[in-house]
Amino acid sequence: MSALALWPRAGEAQGTRPPPPAGEHRALFPICAGPSRVTCVVDGDTLWLRGTKIRIADIDSPEISRPGCPREARLGRQATERLRQLLNAGPFTLLPPPDGRSEDRYGRQLRIVHRDGESLGETLVKEGLAARWGGPRPRWCGSEGV
What is the pLDDT tens value at each position of the chain, 146 positions in all? Predict the structure, then answer.
């Protein structure tokens, strides 16, 4: 084994906690910054996990890269931070969406993030920080923007 294998990857949880059971994931998620993305949260519905870009398949969250108005930008930042908190709260599983799609048109893996039988995306929906995927297109701006 090389000495490099002993060092945790950037953004990975460190410490003496035992690894999660098979099929579960646990990592320390910062907000993504800079060009190197291994394990981090991009926005309210996209994350990187150990070098794989994942789009949360059951929700749509406000945009942070090109928001349509100040309200969408604010909600997008809140959704991003809340997803980071939820992912860091403990082990989770990644499930394929029920429609069988595994990848979106941008090459992101499509997964539903679960903990204790509940979708973390649904938590964001209940908190007003995301909308269910497949429903009406969210109007994050209301009368403020596009």
Answer: 444 333 444 444 444 455 555 689 999 999 999 888 999 999 999 999 999 999 999 999 999 999 999 999 999 999 999 999 999 999 999 999 998 899 999 999 999 999 999 999 999 999 999 999 887 778 889 765 44
CA dist list (Å): 43 to 92, 118, 130: 18, 20, 11
Give me the catalytic one of 12, 63, 81, 122.
63
Q: What count of Cα atoms within 13 Å lies in the side-chain half-sphere of residue 90?
A: 5
Note if 55 is an active site residue: yes
Q: Annotated catalytic, 63?
A: yes
Global pTM reads 0.81
User: What is the SS3 assignment for 86?
Assistant: helix
Helix (H) or strand (E) holding 22: none
